[in-house]
Design a protein that fits this description.
The structure holds two protein chains of two kinds. By secondary structure, chain A is mainly α. Chain A is built from nine helices and five strands. Chain B is about 25% helix and about 25% strand. Classes of the chains: A mainly alpha, B alpha/beta. Chain B: Pfam families: Brix (PF04427).
Chain lengths: ~300, ~325
């Protein structure tokens, strides 16, 4: 009889469904109506009992009566409740008519709770789901290792520097940077293009000087700039070139000031000259008009 | 082995051999049961191998010197890049078909200068501090970009809004366990969507010897090593992030360097010290990307048409095969 069962399980002996905590006892039995371990909510200790459970989104009413107590297989009778909330409540009432108030009330409460959480599930699945993708340790390790090796193989700094120098050579930067070779080439081009009265001797001399310059440039890279500036001055024959030189000078100084204002190391060469340099004089037919730089 | 150089007493599977002979083929060092002795023999064996190798090298060097000019050219050491499996989709610079494709694909309006890039940077839900800071730094690196908080919005809903407000690109930085680990780059008016795995993210303060902050100048762009057709389209995607006319006064350069399918991003400031020397200083964040998938339309995980997905079992079989 249920009283005996309860006196055994509830208080004295061991019930495997019972979970005790500091403040309360819980019942883990799946047919339990409230989830607590009480005399009135223990499905083992009540011969007439009912619960509402849901399966795959549909709610069922489970009922247990004394008549079937001897037949464990047929013990729990299952009734499908309608999807309509009010109708389902009526069905519960209808099925549990003449049953104790407590069970009826708790069944309806439980049914309400269940429908509420089912609604929430449906709403959440419509929103964004976060997909958890498990990391595979071996693969992560492999990829990290390969990344390190690729980084070493890439030699990024060198590659970037090379690319930038390439672009400088291909003149994508235009007039911004004046390095002596470039300025000189430009000056030469201007000279060829604009001044019509060019004697061959002059040209030859220019070429010679250009060769000499180039040679100097390659061998003594340190002193290239300082020497170069002067030689550029010496060779300019037309005023236009002088003007261009001046412009170029200004640009360089501007650049230097720009770079100074940015706090970087200032441009070497025109801005500062540490090394002692030699002023080389070449004999030419034409003399330079103005000298913009002090020797 | 004992039989090799020193006949060790009480050890013997072979006959006691003369001094300088190498191990008889039936014996191996691993057959000795005693660990100490085995270790000792193994070290001895290793030393011998090394000596032989050195002797071989010397001999070769001598031969080379002896031959002088007639010596055969030095063998180029094999690298993974050398040995790379030839990819048939490698783009030939003169390929007309590719050129035609590129003139008519989704990036054509950008490359024809009809559109100005405008980027929206956002994260996944509830970003942590590191991700937020990374987004801000990325926004300083990429000109004309805006950072917006996600606040639980669905990407599919924000994409039409972005298109309405004239954004050209969308970057979503995915976060996991407080570090950014993924990047979704989507070109907006129904452009391709690329999903990358992001690793080794370094914020500005973690970079050693960094310079000052990146200024507002439009940086230059370097795209290295995007050889195959797929690499080409990814490269164009990156190019479409930056405006066309870099301001050389700024002297800033953003680099996307592809090496063995890893794309390294760096942001530098350069200065030309001379005709042949340039100094670069790293500012700005750095990260590496690995392409996971490329989708034809905008971001749509369910119904999207994938142009390329990284399938580990099929594509990772060879160490010398790369796809970008």
């Amino acid at each position: 009889s249920p009283q005996v069962v309860w006196s055994m399980l509830g208080n004295r002996q061991f019930c495997s469904y019972k979970m005790t905590t500091k403040t309360q006892n819980f019942c883990r039995n799946e047919y339990n109506l409230t989830g607590l371990c009480n005399r009135s909510s223990c499905p083992l200790a009540n011969s007439q009992y009912a619960t509402v459970r849901e399966e795959k989104g549909r709610c069922y009413l489970y009922m247990k009566t004394i008549e079937r107590a001897a037949f464990p297989r047929r013990l729990w009778e299952r009734v499908l409740l309608s999807k309509n909330y009010e109708k389902a409540l009526e069905e519960i009432d209808e099925n549990l008519i003449y049953w104790p108030r407590f069970i009826r009330h708790k069944c309806k409460q439980r049914f309400t709770k269940i429908t509420q959480y089912l609604i929430r599930i449906r709403k959440l699945t419509l929103k964004r789901q976060r997909k958890l993708v498990p990391l595979r340790r071996k693969i992560e390790r492999r990829e990290n290792r390969r990344e390190e090796k690729a980084l070493i193989a890439a030699q990024l700094d060198n590659a970037i520097e090379k690319e930038l120098l390439e672009r400088l050579k291909q003149d994508t930067y235009g007039d911004i940077y004046n390095f002596p070779i470039h300025a000189f080439d430009k000056a030469l081009q201007q000279q060829d293009a604009e001044s019509e009265s060019e004697s061959d001797a002059e040209r030859e001399e220019d070429d010679d000087d250009e060769d000499v310059d180039k040679r100097e440039f390659v061998e003594a890279e340190d002193s290239e700039l300082s020497d170069f500036e002067d030689m550029d001055k010496l060779e300019t024959s037309s005023e236009e070139e002088d003007e261009e030189e001046e412009e170029v000078e200004e640009e360089v100084e501007e650049e230097a000031s720009h770079s100074k204002s940015k706090g970087k190391t200032p441009l070497k060469g025109p801005a500062r000259r540490k090394r002692p340099y030699i002023e080389i004089e070449y004999e030419k037919e034409t003399e330079p008009g103005t000298k913009t730089k002090a020797a | 082995a004992g039989e090799g150089n020193e006949p060790v007493p009480g050890h013997g599977t072979g006959p006691p051999a003369p001094e300088r002979v190498l191990f008889p083929p039936t014996f191996s060092v691993s057959e000795i049961k005693n660990k100490q002795r085995r270790h000792f023999m193994f070290l001895r064996w290793k030393q011998q191998q090394r000596k032989e190798k050195l002797a071989l090298k010397k001999k070769r060097k001598k031969e080379r010197e002896a031959l002088g000019d007639k010596a055969p050219p030095k063998a180029v050491p094999k690298t993974i890049e050398n040995q790379r499996v030839y990819d048939e989709t490698t783009v030939d610079p003169n390929d007309e078909e590719v050129a035609f494709d590129e003139a008519t694909d989704e990036f054509a309006p950008y490359f024809n200068r009809q559109t100005v890039p405008k980027i929206l940077i956002t994260t996944s839900d509830r970003p942590r501090g590191r991700t937020v800071r990374f987004c801000e730094q990325l926004a300083t690196v990429i000109p004309n970009s805006h950072v917006y908080y996600r606040r639980g919005l669905a990407l599919k809903r924000i994409i039409p809004q972005c298109i309405a407000r004239d954004f050209t690109d969308l970057i979503v930085i995915n976060e996991d366990r407080k570090i950014p680990n993924g990047l979704v780059l989507s070109h907006l008016p129904d452009g391709p969507t690329a999903h990358f795995r992001m690793s080794s993210v370094r914020l500005r303060k973690e970079i050693k010897r960094k310079g000052k902050e990146p200024t507002e100048h439009v940086p230059e762009l370097i795209l290295n090593n995007f050889t195959t057709r797929l690499g080409h389209s990814i490269g164009r995607m990156f190019a479409a992030l930056f405006p066309h006319d870099p301001q050389f006064i700024g002297r800033q350069v953003a680099t996307f360097h592809n090496q063995r399918d890893y794309i390294f991003f760096r942001f530098h400031r350069y200065i030309f010290k001379s005709e042949k020397k340039v100094g670069i200083q790293e500012l700005g964040p750095r990260f590496t990307l690995k392409l996971r998938s490329l989708q034809k339309g905008t971001f749509d995980s369910k119904f999207g048409e994938y142009e390329w997905i990284h399938k580990r079992r099929e594509m990772d079989t060879s160490r010398r095969k790369f796809h970008l």
